[in-house]
Amino acid sequence: MKIAMIGAGAMGSLFGALLAEAGETVTLLDICTDHVNAVNANGLVIEKQNQRRTVRLPATTDPQHIGPVDLAVVFVKSAHTAAAAQTAADLAGSSGLVLTLQNGMGNTEVLAESVDPSRIIAGTTANGATFLEPGTIRHAGSGETVIGAWTSTETARAATLADTFNRAGIVTRVVDDVRAVLWAKLFINIGINAITALTGIKNGQLLDQPETRQLSREAVEEAIAVARAKGIAIDGDPVEKVFQIAAATGPNRSSMGQDVDHRRLTEISAINGFIVRMAETAGVPTPVNRTLSALVETLQGHY
């Protein structure tokens, strides 16, 4: 399978490398020339459990150097989804698939403005990765990837894609209702990302103090109320799931925390900000998420 990774940060580079190691034809596409040059010169270095390996695969800043692909995987930040959508549409052509595993909500709808919705696969991943320096990433943790067809017409192709990922060691399963999965991931991001970004703590430290746990709980409970108002199916106890994920990824900094650390634009608008916007149409109060969103927006606005 010929694959383009649109957005070769930590996660895009990780997935691209794993697929390349499994024999797929993969090209990394990114605007960061330092990273692209380092990968082309020395390969992509992956650090995992204090060991390093190097994966050789091409990288470029120009999508025209890639040509038509069978699969375009979108891993850019949500603020850049619109630009990535046009690139994905060009690369996938009239028959290729477009997969989004991005954080936050609304990315798939943006992609669907440029790509036939029947060729879009959406999902989430519990894999963790950190960008260390140009050409080097850390595989911080492994977890399940869950995908599903955005429309009901492409379930078979979603299953084929899952088989490709599983052969590459990316544990993947297909679900019928991918929207519920996206909301479940949103709850986790709501409960962890903004709080860790604002305080400088690691994921596991969110559980250290009752005040922080309560803040996380209230943010997630607001999001649950919005989801229920929108008719979204909710599985289990999302708050306890957030606490379990925080414990399981204890040493990690959240993706939003890493963005703040490196003074990068965050995805707050597609996470807590998304809940605030949805709440306005549903008539649900969200004071905690409104405050968290405003604080992160203020922080990144004064880098």
TrEMBL record:
A GO term for molecular function: NADP binding
Catalytic function, reaction form: (R)-pantoate + NADP(+) = 2-dehydropantoate + NADPH + H(+)
Signal peptide bounds: 1-22
InterPro entries the UniProt entry points to: 6-PGluconate_DH-like_C_sf (IPR008927), 6PGD_dom2 (IPR013328), ApbA (IPR003710), Ketopantoate_reductase (IPR050838), KPA_reductase (IPR013752), KPR_N (IPR013332), NAD(P)-bd_dom_sf (IPR036291)
Domain Ketopantoate reductase N-terminal: 3-150
Pathway(s) per entry: Cofactor biosynthesis; (R)-pantothenate biosynthesis; (R)-pantoate from 3-methyl-2-oxobutanoate: step 2/2
Pfam name, any one: ApbA_C
Gene Ontology biological-process entries: pantothenate biosynthetic process
EC number: 1.1.1.169
Gene Ontology CC entries for this record: cytoplasm
Superkingdom as given in the UniProt entry: Bacteria
Gene3D superfamilies to which the protein is assigned, alphabetical: N-(1-d-carboxylethyl)-l-norvaline Dehydrogenase, domain 2, NAD(P)-binding Rossmann-like Domain
Enzyme class (EC, first level): oxidoreductase
Domain Ketopantoate reductase C-terminal: from-to ranges: 177-299
Keywords: NADP, Oxidoreductase, Pantothenate biosynthesis, Signal
Entry similarity comment: Belongs to the ketopantoate reductase family.
Role of this protein: Catalyzes the NADPH-dependent reduction of ketopantoate into pantoic acid.
Designated name of the protein: 2-dehydropantoate 2-reductase
Source species: Desulfosarcina ovata subsp. ovata
